Each structure stands twice: as structure tokens, then as C-alpha cells.
Amino acid sequence: MRLTRPRAVPLLDPADIDLADPQLYAAGDPHAVWLALREEHPVVRQPLRDGRCFWSATRYHDVNEVLRDHTRFTSERGTLLSTLGVDDPAGGKMMAASDPPVHTALREPLSRAMSARAMRRWEPRIRRMVRRLLAPLADGAPWDLAAAAASFPMAFTGTLMGLPEADWPRLTRLTTMAVAPTDEEFREGRGTLVAAHHELFEYFADHLHATRSAADDSLVGFLREMAAGDRRLRQDELVYNCYSLLLGANVTTPHAVAGTVLAFIEEPAQYARLIADPHLVPRAIEEGLRWSSPANHFMRYTTMEVELSGVRIAPGQAVVAWLGSANRDRRAFADPFAFDVARSPNRHVAFGFGPHYCVGAPLARIALRILFEETVQNVAAFEHAGPVEHLASDFVAGVKRLPVSAQLRPGAARRLSAAGTPRAEGVS
Q1: Among 43, 111, 254, 337, which residue carries the largest CB count within 10 Å?
Q2: What's the alpha-carbon Rg for the chain, to the nearest Å?
Q3: Within 10 Å of residue 27's Cβ, how many Cβ atoms?
Q4: What is the set of domains in the chain, with CATH numbers?
């Protein structure tokens, strides 16, 4: 998705806007559209041509209300626009598509297993992966950062879940197909979304069957053995939650990387601040998450009549909370269209808000911190080396092509070359 900086509030008629159109995010200007909606129509009904409809919430406070209160806004009927109008079969079975008490029973043990403290043991492995990821910069040739970043999460999530490395490229593609089924690069036949879901569900069913009698200390093994309340998960619940964990990792981290580097290219002074003071890396990561907002929206259904920004919404209505819009709301962020690596406070909602706050956020933050620590140590500046291409998806604010060239810091070429050698890759 293009990360533009509108200079004024556009004059737009909500009837002319289709926020469910994936092409808006591939080639349009959603930030200008969201700015107009935040200022003039913060909560608006959006009918689609096929007769379905949803309500859009674009202001920070309203987005938080929708995501926070499960008693008024349920997750069990579907959480993405791709399920609009059809009850989600994973409702009440997958953590992301459930409400308390089911959600609480699933989340509490997973939160402990994926806490920042528990994930710290992965830091040395992630740092080696990051160094290998950056190794191609050593030869000075243009490098597609977005394509490289797309494979980055599987290197640690695939390992964490105990998935065979040979399967990682296909799983990466399948998760992108699931969130961008109309994108020409990822379309496989007419029913791309259904086919991607079917293949991913079948994959995890087969994986669970193949590993059922093995000693398994992976995250999949943890799911199999964990107690959700007073019982273990059924097979369908295991499959849905394995799918959800993989999807969450693969469709967020890569686009946070690409969006942040794009901001560094457009704002070289901000990157220079980071090089001058590497202690700003944690703040820069939070700003990169706010700026890129990789998860574009989450959907809920009203369980009763509700009111948002003075607009009444009847029970049973789909409400879409636009995270990318909330993260540019002037009511929550000073100078929201400025990229500031030292921004504080920065209470962005890139990982969601409330009970469904992303359970993988600690691991994502560790991976991003290490990646940008290594980047700052080795890269003096990035420059465009070709046109940027954006993903056609209403859910993921994605960059699928980002050719860059890098001006390296002294000694970086030697360090990066060493990281890419077979010996370095063999370190365990």
C-alpha cells in the first residue's frame, strides 16, 4: 500500500469509495481516502455492489472501541472482509475468531509460550538469519528487499513451529494467496482464496498426523499438548490455530520491514538520526509499525445497538476497524504524516488492541529489532533501484517489489560476505 502524505483533506463522497477494493491498496491512495473519512465521515455505511455491506470506523478512538469490547463487537462471525456475509467456520475454534471464555482459554497458555522472555532464546538464531538475509548487499548490486523480507518470517516461525524447511517457500506463497487472492502474481485459478485455505488446512492436518507420536517441542507440539481450560484442542481447532499463527507471522513482519525502509529512503535525515544514535532503534521500530500498519483492518459484528462517533449501528452489523487509518489520526498522534524515529509516546494499533492484541508481537519485535540493529551497523543509506510494487489486498498493506541499492558503512562488505558463506550458514 502506498504510504502517502496528503497535504489537505480531499473532498470525497463516501458513495464513491470502495474500501473493500484490493486495487485501492495496490494503485490508489487509501491514506487520502481515510483522511477524508476521519474528518468528515468517521463512521460510515459502505454498501457493496453484490448487496453486502459493512460499517467503516476510521478514527483511533472508535477503532479501539471496536477491538476492545467483545461484549458489543464479536469476533466469532468473522474478522476479515474476506468473510463478510458468511459466518466463519473457524468461529469459536480459532483464537482470532473467538470471544471469551474460549478466547481466554486459548490465549493464556499461548501468551506464556510466546512471551518476550520465552522468545529471547531465539535471538542468536534470528541474528544469524538476519545477517544471511542482508548478505547480498555486499556485492553492491540492486537487491529486492521486499522479496527477501517475504521469506524472513518463515526462517524463525517455520523453525519455531517445527515445519520442514523444504516446505517454507510454498507456505509463504500460500499465506500471501490467502490475503491477496486477486493479486495477479498470487492468483492461481478462479478460487485462489478457497484453494489456499484448503491447501494450508490440509498441510497442517497432515503435519499433525505425521508428528502425532514424535517427541515434539515445537509450537505445534505445544498446541497439541496445551490445556485450553479443562481440555485439549480437537483436531480442527489445532489446524485452525496453526494456520492463524503462520498467517499472522508471514503477512505482517515482511511488510513492516519494507514500509520502514521505504520511509528511510524518503526521509534520509531520519535514517541518519538512527545511525548517529542506535539506541533509537526500538522507537524506530514502533514508528515503522505505525507507519506501515501491515494489518490493514479487522472486522467485528455488533451484538447489540451501538454508537460510534454519534452514529447508531443496529445489532448484527459488520464493523470494519481500519488500523492504517487509526495510526494516522491527528487526535492520537502529533503530526501523524511525519515519520519520526524518536516518536514518543507512540500508542499505535499495528498489532491490534484489546483482548485480540497480536500474540506474536513479542517475537515480531525481537526480529525487527535485530534486523534494524544489523542494518544500522552495516548500511549508511538506501536508495531506490527500481519501481516499487504494492500488493493488491484489502487486509495486508503490502509491498511485493522494493528494489534498492545500499551504500555500505566501512567494513560492512566484509562482514556481510562472511555472513553469507556456507560456514556461517552452518552455525547452529
Answers
A1: 254
A2: 21
A3: 12
A4: 14-425 (1.10.630.10)
